[in-house]
Structure formats: structure tokens, C-alpha cells
Specification:
- The chain is an alpha/beta fold.
- The protein has one domain: Rossmann fold (3-Layer(aba) Sandwich).
- It has seven helices and five strands.
- Helix 1 crosses helix 6 and helix 4 crosses helix 5.
- The chain starts with a helix and ends with a helix.
């Protein structure tokens, strides 16, 4: 009798588990499909956007952020980008992300006139939204690690930017760290989808800023 009951219940439980997994995975699948074809190759654009993340206690970029900045510098040095927008939290828990990024990029030989800072890129969505709404960017290369790239590109493209992803290096990143960040990004896709669906405005409302256009003219 018990065996018969379980034989009936197991297929239902499996079906319920599959449905639940599909529901939970739907936002992640959306980012993968939307970014498909926009995260490979060797694209070029006037502007490269570097998305901020943690800095160290002494105000230097952490290993993930350093990898993004090294990749962005290579884009400029190779002629695939002309201006870099560093977008991060200017008052973050770990420190001033854009200030750390600017200092690091100039140390890599990037002319300070080619760097524009957005201290209110408080998350990926805000960075993408402000790139278009505040800085007037219509096309850009988005620089971040591979685990973050599809979500970042999808958000930027959903917000009107013709965005192409450029995977950043992560020298010194352990497999454990990358697995942890990949898992975090998987669940962050749900919030990303919700933000796009409700057309969330950026956390900080700023007037139009011509800094990127001025940097392009100067360059």
C-alpha cells in the first residue's frame, strides 16, 4: 500500500520540482538568451563601461575590479575604445570605487582625460540606466567578469544601450570565489528582471552630464 502511494507521489513531486526549477531559472535564462551573440568576438565602441565592485581597505581595486580595469585599459591601448566610464559606488562600504578605478587606470597609462567617473552607479542596473540617461551613451562595451557579463549586457540592452560584453580577467580569483559569485549572480537575475519589468528609475536622479561627449571630443 505504502509503495503504491509513493509510486503515485514520486512523479508528481518530480514534476513539481522541475516546474519550480524552471520558474526560479527563468530570469537567468532570460539573461543568457538576451545576451547571446553580444558577449563574444572583438567588438569596438567609443566608450567602455567598467562596472565597479569592492575595493581593498587601502583604497585599491580588489582582484576582480583590477581585472576589469586591466581589460578596459587594453581596449583603449588597442584602439577598440576611446573613453572609459568608470561606474560604481562613490560612497560604498568598501570605499570610493570610481576614485580607486581612476587612480588604477592612470597607473596603467590611460590619459585621465579619457576617463569619466559616475559615482552613482550603485548597482548594475543603475550603471546601465545612468550611462544612457545621464551621460548620453548609446553604444558601449561593458567590461566585467564572465559570471556577471550576461546579466550586465542584458540590463544595458534592455535600457536602450547597444551593449557588447567584454569578459575581464580575474588573476588570483580562486575557483571557490568564482563559484560563489556565479551563484550570487544567478539569483540576482530575478531582481534584474523585476527592475526591467517595473522600469525602475536609478536610485540617484542626475541632470544630463556632457563629460563623456567632452572626453570623446578631446580625444
Amino acid at each position: 500500500m505504502i509503495a503504491r502511494v509513493w509510486r503515485r507521489r514520486v512523479p508528481r513531486l518530480v514534476a513539481a520540482a522541475v516546474i519550480a526549477l524552471l520558474i526560479v531559472s527563468a530570469p537567468w535564462l532570460w539573461t543568457q538568451i538576451s545576451a547571446y551573440g553580444h558577449v563574444s568576438g572583438t567588438p569596438a565602441a567609443d566608450v567602455a563601461i567598467v562596472l565597479g565592485t569592492d575595493v581593498t581597505a587601502d583604497g585599491r581595486p580588489g582582484i576582480r575590479l583590477a581585472g576589469r580595469l586591466q581589460t578596459a585599459a587594453e581596449l583603449v591601448h588597442s584602439g577598440r575604445a576611446r573613453v572609459i566610464l568608470v561606474s560604481g559606488d562613490g560612497g560604498g562600504v568598501s570605499g570610493d570605487e570610481p576614485a580607486a578605478m581612476i587612480s588604477y587606470l592612470t597607473g596603467l597609462g590611460i590619459d585621465a582625460r579619457r576617463i569619466v567617473s559616475d559615482p552613482y552607479g550603485l548597482d548594475t542596473y543603475d550603471s546601465c540606466a545612468r550611462a544612457g540617461q545621464v551621460y548620453g551613451i548609446t553604444r558601449a562595451l561593458v567590461v566585467t567578469q564572465a559570471y556577471h557579463l550576461s546579466r550586465a549586457v542584458t540590463l544595458c540592452r534592455s535600457l536602450g544601450l547597444d551593449a557588447e560584453g567584454v569578459p575581464a580577467g580575474c588573476a588570483g580569483c580562486s575557483a571557490t570565489l568564482l563559484a560563489e559569485k556565479s551563484a550570487r549572480d544567478y539569483f540576482a537575475c530575478g531582481k534584474a528582471a523585476l527592475d526591467v519589468l517595473r522600469d525602475r528609475p536609478p536610485a540617484v536622479d542626475s541632470p544630463a552630464d556632457p563629460a563623456v561627449q567632452d572626453a570623446l571630443k578631446a580625444g
